[in-house]
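Whether sequence alone determines local backbone shape is best considered at the level of individual chains. In the encoding step, the backbone of a single protein was reduced to a row of integers, each denoting a local shape. For completeness, the protein is quoted in full, as a sequence line and a line of structure tokens.
***
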Amino acid sequence: MPLEYGKNVVNDLADLNVNGWVQQRETNSIVNTRSSLRITRDFALNSDIPLEHSHTIFIESDLVFPAPNALIKRLLWKKGRRYEHEGNILVIKHERGSETRVVDMTEEDISFCNFLLRR
């Protein structure tokens, strides 16, 4: 994944240019606050037990008019929730407490990511 313009190293996930996967700003915009468009999960929901790895979920900004996402819509409706998201979602797995140490996803992570998205 490429780095943000002007960055040479990854100090945290904000240094990654995720705009190619989840558009978080207008194409020609360089300055933008993206912290509201991501959430990191370190603990299983309703639990004090830490997860083995953290998962950061990036969502598309509604300011860029993203297309509807049928997969997310199905996931949320199965849980009985109203469809509240349009656009793509990107999940990055990384070591707990370190956003600079990204970890490969496995087949088992797909179900867990679906679980996280339903919450």
Summary: The chain has a mean pLDDT of 76. The CA atoms of residues 72 and 85 lie 7 Å apart.
